[in-house]
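Hi all, a correction to my earlier message: I attached the wrong file for Transposase IS4-like domain-containing protein. Here's the right sequence:
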Amino acid sequence: MSAIKVWTHNPEKVEAAILAGEEQEEDLTKYGANEFAVDFLKQSGLWGPLLVKPDRGKENGKDWKKIAGIAILLELLHVGHLAKAEKVIKDTKLMVELGFTLEEVATARGRGKGVLHRDTVRNYFKAIPQEESIKEFYEYVNLLRRKRWNRGKVYVADGFELEVCGKTYEGVGKVYDDKAGKWKYGYKVVILMNVEKERERIMGVAIGPINSDERKLLAEIFEDLGKHVDKIKNIMDVIVLDRGYWGYDFMQETIVKKYGIDYVLIAKKSFMFVKEDLRHMIDSKQIKFQERRLYNPSKKEHEDVKVGYVNDLYHGYVSKAQPYQGMVNVVVLLKTIKEGKGKKQKEIFYVTNKRITGDPLKIVKLYASRWSVENQGIRDLSQRWLIRIPAGRTLNAVTARICLILKLYNAMKIMEMKHGQEWQKNKEEIKAWGERSFIGGQGIIVYANGYFATFSSRQYKILIETRTRRITEERLKASYLKNLERLLPKEQFEVVQQKLTC
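and the right structure:
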């Protein structure tokens, strides 16, 4: 297992090592792409809220804020916002403010001076209670809302599985995998995303055993939002869900009646009555269709489609006394797809409680906003942020890392929104922040004996000149004494030696 070498800021120790002529390394400071992300977090006020205090304040004598900082930097390294895991994070300001630099080492080293194992970061995650991680996540959501870094009231919910090996993880569940023919163990994570274009933000999260009911986890998110943020109806107008397994009762009783918002989903198993009724209405030409063009974000092209709708469709059979559960509104989308060498017509049924007037394609486009969470959110979190890798075997550790990644995901989306490609090359921003980066005054980083210090070129020149002068004097003195030892009697030489060495 690799370790992280931590170089601690200590100018006095480094200066003494330089003057003593001990082994050292030097590097020039540099402000560039590697630091833009961290500097943005600090300048924007997002860095502090990322640091969650564990139950204990230190880990093996190390300040928890430094360990939390390392955890943040490690996650940023995954996604390339810190371009290299070098020994030097080259912005001196960041090193001084954080109090350390990092170095990835190829092989494990024993715990010792200046070396921080990844176990320390895992232990940091483990020491944060699950409820504290969730609370801090929603405090972050509040911060985004105060700064108006999220907009719009259309939300999408989706879930993913975090599979683990074995049963020793706390709070783990199990489900049978029909394809693999075996049980799988792990967790289920549901996230709630605001999908305003160019302002996609993850605004809710719930974690449970892998066999958890997604309805229960979504209800948990709503409860946490109401507890820590605001009333649901003040946060969102409509929620888009992935399939009809949520059920009519849940949608009507929980989403519509309890929280006062609308929903859009695709009819599947729990809406079989809708599909059967609509197919009959299509065959009997009871639905009028419009020919339209619709953009397909996954193919990145427009498609020819037909769209129609029905309002106030009776849904579900309960009994003779109650011949239907309630009413829904449905949009029907017809499009031609390839099947083998031929083509066939595909039908998609969008179920909603929103009354459909005018353009039914608005409902289709609402559902299409799911693409943000499915193909950008979940995939990005899995492939780039490695969110499916558990931080440890405790539920505290699993939750703490997931919440940190979600907060960082939002922060990096905000950075890219505000700066675009500037985070790689904006010289004006760099120039504006240059004084705080010490570029003008401190240009050399020196490493010695597990410590680092920053010096201006003038300071470093004086230290090197002083060291050189001392070494030269010592060598001349040693050479002079050696010659005297050959020329003088022993008693006289000892007297001269004592005077020269005092």
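Sorry for the mix-up. Confidence is low (pLDDT under 50) at residues 83-91, 104-114, 433-442.
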